[in-house]
Amino acid sequence: MLETPTAMENVIHSRTPLMGTGDPPKPDHVLMMTTKPDNSPSMGNKIVKGLKANLLIILMIIAVIVGLGLGFGLRGVWTPYETRKIFYLRFPGDLLMNMLKMLILPLIVSSLITAMGSLDTNASGRMGLRTVVYYMTTTFSAVILGIVLVVTIQPGHKGSKNITKAGSPKEAEPLDALFDLIRNCFPDNLIESAFNKQVTSVGKKNVTLKSPSPSNITEAVSTLAMNLTSNSTGDNSTDTGVTMFEVDTMSVTKASGMNILGIVVFSLFLGGVLSKMGKDGAPLVKFFECLHVATMKLVTLVIWYSPVGIVFLIAAKLVEMEDLDAMFEQLAYYMVTVLAGLFIHAFIVLPLIYVIFTRKNPFRFMVGMIKAILTAWGTASSSATLPLTMRCLEENNGVDPRVTMFVTPIGATINMDGTALYEAVASIFIAQYIGQTLNVGEVIIVSLTATAAAIGAAGVPQAGLVTMTIVLTAVGLPINEITLILSIDWFLDRFRTAVNVLGDAYGAGIVEHLSRNDIVKVPEVEMEVPKEQRNGFHNAESGKEKMDTRM
């Protein structure tokens, strides 16, 4: 009789069949037959098998090439002002973005709650600490790398001095942004946080002080108002007993966009509580585990459509750009600086960190993430790439699903290595371009604020531009100068998003290796649930096959 799979094997293999340690061993005579030369597959069969195994990667590479070719080809036929045609051209790509974003909410909630609920509280705490330390370390190292490159190359002192500005910046106060980040961790309405987030809104209000009979109190108030409002509008004269000045009105409003940070915090706490509840919380843990498996099934369907969407996303973006030649020519040194930093961080820094902690081949790990990296480049959204990131980690790199479900949603929210490097380079480039020299203290401020701002950047296209204003304001640079780099941002955004996703993936691999002694322990909640009901599915002993997340 075959040995009964352990409880931990049921937890793992219900989502990652490729790890297959729970499968019974093959009989000896079967193994002997497979070694006969007559039954060995031919070279043609091996090639066909290899093509089938990597078909999606091949299709994505072809999609990127076709998208670039289609975009450059249509630029000779259409003008950037034919917005209706461009709008229709982008339609298949919009469908891909909608489908990926649709899966973000159920995937984050189910994965985090399942991971926290199936891990011991102490184990999840240690895993969380390792995750945060890794993300903070890599983000800060990316910022330092960017500062070293931009100070060495000095792109702001080279190239064209007549850069065409584009778009308009968004104002943001550093303190307001920090409060918004903390406030969004604790949403007042969980349902509303799925489509709205809280932001600080600043308005202006005219205040009039009237004093029929001048007194010491009114004169003091008037004098204070005059001193505080050097830029006030209206009549500030106190001769008639009337003082007019302008003040800021602060309020918290709702802005469109998913509050991913609030959802992550809620899911972490709910999963931790369910883990503490033990047997009583097991049914709810099983529910979210089933939701995760079902969501991953939907991810598989969406993935096969992604090459089509990527073609039209890239083509539409190329067509709508007004003057590509001038843009690349004017910002060539800036673009080279950013891309060099991203390349060094992705192919040297991150692999080196991975080797130091795991003693494994980092480039083999990177190859397993090719599908997610190409999707990140095509969509320019790390959040939209999250479903594919989790699938690649589990199936291609064999990362424990509990680690994947815990680490990657947090990484897609707070780990922005590419964005942090980009913001550090962009802020110092702007200072160089306008002729403002930053001292050592201001460079340190840039490094710290770029790290903090990257954590607050949402995993959506071009979110770094919003947080860029925080960095510029912190060192006294004019935020209007952001328009210098807006024309090239869409292009660089795709590369830094790919680096963000790669950093998330390496983080999952490192955390799993460091937590291997914690995750091998059978969680108490799993031991108390009947074996045939574990994970919400019947195991092989009950006559049914184990659940597979693949289609």
What portion of the residues fall into strands of 2 or more residues?
Answer: 5-15%
Q: Assign the structural class, choosing from mainly alpha, mainly beta, alpha/beta, alpha+beta, or little secondary structure.
A: mainly alpha
Number of strands: 2
The order of strands across the largest sheet is: 1-2
**General shape:** globular
Oligomeric state, counting identical vs distinct chains: single chain
Which radius of gyration do the C-alpha atoms yield? Answer: 27 Å
Low-confidence stretches: 1-23, 25-36, 230-235, 522-551
User: What is the H/E order?
Assistant: HHHHHHHHEHEHHHHHHHHHHHHHH
Largest sheet composition: 2 strands, antiparallel
Write structural notes for this entry:
The protein is mostly helical and 551 residues long. 65% of the residues lie in helices and 5% in strands. It has helices spanning 7-13, 28-34, 43-53, 55-75, 83-89, 91-118, 121-153, 174-184, 216-228, 260-277, 282-320, 324-330, 332-358, 362-367, 370-379, 382-395, 401-414, 417-433, 440-456, 464-474, 486-514, 516-519, 524-528; strands at 196-210, 242-256. Strands 1-2 form a two-stranded antiparallel ribbon. Helix 6 (91-118) crosses helix 16 (382-395) and helix 15 packs antiparallel against helix 21 (486-514). The protein is globular. The two termini are 31 Å apart. The model is unreliable at 1-23, 25-36, 230-235 and 522-551 (pLDDT under 50).
